[in-house]
Design brief:
Layout (H helix, E strand, L loop, with lengths): L1 H14 L4 E7 L2 E6 L4 H10 L7 E9 L27 H7 L7 E9 L4 E8 L7 E3 L8 H12 L2 E3 L28 E6 L4 E6 L16 H22 L1
Parallel strand pairs: 2-5, 6-7
Antiparallel strand pairs: 1-2, 3-4, 4-5, 8-9
């Protein structure tokens, strides 16, 4: 499989010269990066070329690189007590200043499968506009892109030019914002409940407090190692008694 992917990479580098921004092999997977204006042409080639023959699109997803490589919490190195301080604020008035981002923030990632050659490839393309992210729709090349693109639009706010029916697919019709954007508050913006008196669903300001959940960290310290050694000795004695 590795040799076949390397041959595929060489084929793409030669056939799509000037169309690919990058091609990379990592962890036994091939990823190519394409400029938005070349996405449809490259995807048609991947589908129709006999060496490629990627006849099936298995996923289209969005990626938000707003806080890529940053951590929202730190842990102390001496004990289980941890202090957490958020680096970001979800106050709407501060959002524009707090979440300034240089570079291309949103990307569309496409996963393709060739049943004929038993191969997979990942295609990545970055949206040019951070304020109004847009990408050409792949629905005309692979029909399965339809609902995947609606999901990326709903959760990330990425628009797909040429999509026949670009509507929300997971959130409510009147939902405001896009939940998978990294500047969207984890607590949400509104509470929704059914009001028995009004006999309808009503929206209210969110009532829960924002917080960051820090995973439990198990450290290799002597006080814990000695306890584990004692438990191991007891377990060995029980096993020896059971075998007699």
């Amino acid at each position: 499989m590795g040799a076949s992917l390397q041959q595929l990479q060489a084929r793409l580098d030669k056939a799509l010269v000037g169309k690919l921004l990058a091609s990379k092999m990592a962890l036994g997977e091939l990823t190519i990066e394409v400029a938005p204006e070349n996405l449809l042409e490259v995807c048609r080639f991947l589908r129709d070329d006999e060496v490629c023959h990627f006849e099936q699109l298995t996923d289209v997803c969005g990626v938000d690189y707003l806080s890529y490589g940053q951590s929202e919490w730190d842990t102390s190195t001496s004990s289980f007590s941890r202090g957490v301080k958020r680096e970001f604020s979800f106050d709407e008035d501060e959002a524009a200043e707090t979440f300034e981002f240089e570079g291309k923030r949103y990307a569309v990632v496409i996963h393709l499968l060739s049943i004929k050659h038993n191969q997979r490839i990942r295609v990545k393309s970055y949206c040019d506009d951070n304020e109004f992210p847009m990408m050409d729709s792949l629905e005309g090349i692979w029909n399965s892109a339809n609902w995947f693109e609606r999901e990326a639009f709903d959760l990330f706010g990425i628009l797909f030019n040429g999509h026949p029916d670009l509507r929300r697919i997971l959130t409510d019709y009147g939902f405001i914002g896009h939940p998978f954007r990294k500047d969207f508050p984890l607590i949400g913006q509104l509470d929704m409940r059914y009001d028995e008196e009004q006999e309808r669903v009503v929206y209210e300001p969110v009532s829960i407090e924002p917080r960051v959940l820090v995973p439990r960290v198990i450290r290799d310290e002597q006080r814990f190692s000695s306890a584990l050694d004692v438990n191991k000795e007891l377990l060995d004695e029980v096993n020896e008694g059971a075998n007699k």
